[in-house]
Amino acid sequence: MGAREAILTRASKGLIRPNDAGPVWMGILNNTPQAPAAGGVLNANKGAYIVQMLRAMMWDPQTLDRDFQAMMQDFVASFRNQAVSGEDFQSIVERHMKPVMDLTGNHRMDWYFNEWLRSTDIPSYRFAYSLVPGENGGTMLESTLTQSGVSPSFRLPVPVFVELGGKDYRVCVVALSGNSTGECKATLSTRPRQVLLNANHDVLSEKDEVVVVKR
To answer: How far, in Å, CA of 31 to CA of 195, rounded?
Structure first.
């Protein structure tokens, strides 16, 4: 079973989904008669998503995963052979994280850890796009991305990729707050084979709906 399914699917002996048992920081306290193994599921699987989503935010088309790798190496070196808290990890993330788009304008990551470590919100997305002829034989991507099912304070940068020549390219990142809609527009050299949302498990989501709008 994949990490997403483990988090969002009710186990055979459970009455609720592991994610609904409580936030990750509660650890084994999430193990209840309603969700007997929730603590381990969340620690292993949602914990992995928390790190993977940071990796997606730190990815750079020029340096790729270099910043993320440096952060994780710093974390290991700083806390080797020690008990580590979520706050300890957050301090290392803030040391390495560049200002995240227009969500904060600074290095503080309280918003991210409040959402994913200390809360149970999981967003759903509806991505509607069209591909229209551009100049010089190119193609224009025009799209909207809607985030739903979250609290007003929930915010996240969501990347959009296209597949060109057998490779995936990030063409934009849509910053969304609460239940809202943002736009992604991009000029492409040629028509992509696919337009992709959550191409690399960039976001833990309840549902990803992709709709092609024909013009």
So the answer is: 39
